[in-house]
Specification:
Blueprint (H helix, E strand, L loop, with lengths): L3 E5 L2 E5 L4 E7 L14 H13 L4 E5 L12 H18 L4 E4 L3 H9 L4 E4 L6 H11 L2 E5 L13 H17 L7 E4 L10 H7 L10 E4 L5 H7 L7 H13 L4 E4 L2 H15 L3
Parallel strand pairs: 3-4, 3-10, 4-5, 5-6, 6-7, 7-8, 8-9, 9-10
Antiparallel strand pairs: 1-2
Helix pairs in contact: 1-2, 2-3, 3-4, 8-9
């Protein structure tokens, strides 16, 4: 079998040998699980150092909350939150930096400032606008499935999800962004009902082979709270369990808040399934 790589402007990951961890660093005052904890650059950098020490393979910086019912902010406000931390992280780390934004202008500024990857919750709707930036900079892309209106509870359409993502990957390739630069994300917690997340997770193998690899973002999300009854900040064990099971099902990258816990769970899963 040919080697698979996820590529970004300054490097690449060999996929299939182990599961990579993307650590979430929220710079927002209103994120659903840790809003306000890392809004000051010094606090953000302390958290960054902790995630790197715990084994993060990439860091995902987010400066606009996308929790349910979020209120969009301006380009200038988002960039004001993001800019100082992005520059500081870039100076102290050679690893891949992802920027979680749905705004092409913020993505452009971030890529020019040294970011490597754009993580876009509206990826399937932004193929043209984000695609031009990605092609220009050779950046990686987390292409997430999203739709408006969301599927009604119990009505998630896996065939449509897969077809939409496949078409988006093809459109990106036609615009100069090869599949090797694209991680596909089925969008846990966004475009379908709470219980439908389990339907999508049980079908993860259907989302493999669409781009370079498969990323999932289960961290602290509401479907885990519905199962355990715990608040967001107490859902890291459940998140690690989902991460490990997803690795067994073919996920290449997991995006989490608690890097160390996920890394330990993934070491078990990877040893179980990926070594002879």
């Amino acid at each position: 079998m040919a080697a698979r790589y996820f590529e970004w402007r300054r490097g690449r990951w060999l996929l299939g040998g182990r599961t990579y961890v993307m650590g979430i660093l929220n710079l927002t005052p209103d994120s659903f699980s840790d809003g306000g904890l890392h809004t000051h650059p010094d606090a953000a950098l302390r958290r960054f150092d902790q995630m790197v020490a715990e084994g993060a393979d990439a860091i995902d910086l987010g400066a606009e909350s996308t929790r349910p019912g979020y209120v969009p902010i301006s380009v200038e406000e988002e960039w004001a939150r993001l800019e100082p931390v992005l520059y500081a992280v870039r100076r102290r780390w050679e690893g891949p930096i992802s920027v979680d934004t749905q705004k092409p202008e913020v993505a452009r500024r971030a890529l020019e400032a040294g970011a490597d990857i754009v993580n876009d919750i509206w990826g399937v709707a932004h193929v043209e606008s984000m695609g031009r930036l990605l092609a220009e900079h050779g950046a990686g892309y987390v292409l997430m499935f999203h739709r408006e209106p969301a599927y009604a509870p119990g009505q998630v359409n896996l065939e449509e999800m897969v077809a939409t993502l496949r078409q988006a990957v093809a459109a990106l390739a036609a615009g100069g962004v090869p599949p090797a630069q694209v991680l596909v994300d089925p969008g846990l917690g966004f475009a379908y009902g709470v219980e439908d997340n389990w339907t999508v997770l049980r079908a993860l193998s259907r989302f493999t082979g669409l781009g370079a690899g498969l990323l999932i973002g289960p961290s602290r999300k509401r479907f885990l709270g519905a199962l355990s009854g715990r608040p967001p900040e107490a859902r890291d064990v459940a998140t690690a369990a989902v991460a490990a099971l997803a690795a067994l099902a073919g996920a290449d990258v997991v995006r989490v808040h608690a890097v160390g816990l996920a890394r330990e769970a993934l070491a078990v899963a990877d040893r179980w399934v990926r070594s002879g």
